[in-house]
Design a protein that fits this description.
three-stranded antiparallel sheet, disordered C terminus, mainly beta, five-stranded antiparallel sheet
Length: 169
Amino acid sequence: MLSIAFAAMPTSDAETLWNGGTDAYGHQPETMISDGPGHPCRHCLRNIDAGEALFVFAYRPFPELQPYAETGPIFLHKTPCRRYGAEEILPPVLTTSRDFIVRGYGKNDRIVYGTGAVTPTDDIATYAASLLERPDIAYVHVRSARNNCYQCRIDKVEAPAYADAGASI
């Protein structure tokens, strides 16, 4: 099976907001206090605990505006957090629901029609890997099955190339 990596929002995007920058609509993020589960931070990919301050803001996980560049509300710890790093492991925020939308995108950042599926949580990695084996799929998004909110991205991990598999070390 193809190796995959779960990727959180880039630290540079989070730092923009932590340093007073604006969201995808040019607005300052709203601050609120978490009342518990249901506020997944897209940078550390953990739920924001009850009583913690968070930002809610418009996020566009695409490099440029175009018809398929969905923008929607997401959450971020108000205080800087460490970016999710266990890329090969299902992130904690993806264990909070029984299913998610998993959808493939091409190199042109457009949805590849027919790839979107409400996928049981336990099947996310397998389905994403099967999509990423296709030549027309560049990456995959995981989104909320109830609200379509962006959760994280999944990329394929290229296997290291070995010049001579039979060489001794």
